[in-house]
C-alpha cells in the first residue's frame, strides 16, 4: 500500500484494502495509516467517510491516526471535521498543530492559521509550523502578518526564506523579495526555489521585464539544473503568451521540447470518484472505458462555457501544438477537465464534485471551472498542489483568484 501511495496510485491502495477484506485479513493501525494517506490524495468526502467508518473504535485513540485524520480532512476541504478531532484530543502534539495550521492555509483560512500559530507555546513551533503559517499568509496576501512572523523566527532556514520570498512575490512586492534574496545569499549559496518564487510572482503580474531578468539570472547561476530551468522557461513563455507575443512564446516552447525529451516530464494527474469508484485521469487520457463519451461531454461543457463568454487562454499551453490539435483541445484535455466531464457524464445532476490534482491548476482551467460550477449549478472542489479551490454555484472561487 505504501508503495502504491508513493507511486501516485492511491486508488490501488483502496483496491488492495478491499481484497484484504474479502480474504478475511484484519487491518491494523499501519494499514489504516496507508489508507488515510491514500484517501487524502484522492480527496473524496464520501469514500473517506465510508472507509473511516470501518476503522475499529480503539484506533481513534492512536496519536498517529488522529494526526493523519486531521491532515486528511484538511486536504479534502473539511476543516470543521479536522477541528473536531483536534479539540477532542487532550494530548495534542506538534504534528497535530502543524496539520491544523497547514489545513487552515490550504483552505484559505489564514486568519485561523495565524491565530492557531500565536496560541502555540514556543517549544511547539518547528520549521514546518513556520513554513505552514507563512504559506497560509502568502495564499491570502497577508503580508504584514507574514513579515512580523518572519522577523520573530530565530532559526531562518532556506525554506523559511523561500516561503517569505514567495509571500512578497505573490503580493508583487518584488523589491522586498529581492532584498531578502540578497540577504540570504550574503552567507549562503543561491537557492533555486527563491528565484522560482520571484519568477512566478512576475508571471502573475505579466511583468515581462522582471521575468526576463530573473530567467537570465537563473540560467547564469544554475546552468546545470535543468529541473529548475524547464519550469522557469515555461513561466517565461506564459508571460510572452499572455502579452500576445506568440512568436517569442513558441520559440521558447520549441526549445523546451528539446530539453524535455531528455528529462522526465511531470504528468498532470487528477482523481475523481463516482458512486464509490475512483478513477485517475492523466492529461489527454484515453484509457477510461467510456473515454469517447467523456470527450463528448467535455466538448459539450466547452460549448456551454464559450457561450457564456469563455475565451481559451493560449498562454497556458506550454508546448507546441500537434497538427490535429487546437488551443481549446489541448486545454480541455487537462486532467481535471476530463475528471469533471466524467463526473457529469455519470451523474448529470451532480450537486458537488471533488477533484484532486497533483500539479497546480492552470489559469484557463480555473476560469473555466468557475463558469462550469455556475452553469451546471454544481459546487466543484479542486485541490491542487498548492491549495483547495471551492468553486461555488455563483461562479466565484474561494481563493478569490489569488492562487
Ligand atoms: Zn488547465
Ligand atoms: Zn481558486
* Basic shape: globular
Q: Low-confidence stretches at least 5 residues in length (pLDDT < 50)?
A: none
The tally of helices reads 20
- The proportion of strand residues reads 5-15%
Helix percent reads: 55-70%
Strand order of the largest sheet: 2-1-3-4-5
Oligomer: single chain
Structural class: alpha+beta
Primary descriptors:
403 residues, alpha+beta, Serine Threonine Protein Phosphatase 5, Tetratricopeptide repeat, 5-stranded mixed β-sheet, 5 strands, binds zinc ion, PPR_rpt, DYW domain-containing protein, zinc ion binding
How would you characterize this protein structure?
A 5-stranded mixed beta sheet has the order 2-1-3-4-5. It has helices at about 1-5, 10-20, 30-40, 45-55, 65-75, 80-90, 95-105, 110-120, 125-140, 145-150, 160-170, 175-185, 190-205, 210-220, 225-240, 245-260, 290-305, 325-330, 335-345, 365-375, and strands at about 270-275, 275-280, 350-355, 380-385, 390. Among the domains are: about 155-265, Alpha Horseshoe (Serine Threonine Protein Phosphatase 5, Tetratricopeptide repeat); about 270-390, no CATH class. Helices cover about 60% and strands about 5% of the residues. The chain has about 400 residues and is an alpha+beta fold. The longest helix is centred in the middle third of the chain and has 17 residues, at about 225-240. It is built from 20 helices and 5 strands. The mean pLDDT is about 95. It starts with a helix and ends in a 12-residue tail after the last strand. One zinc ion binds near residues 366, 389, 397, 399 and 403.
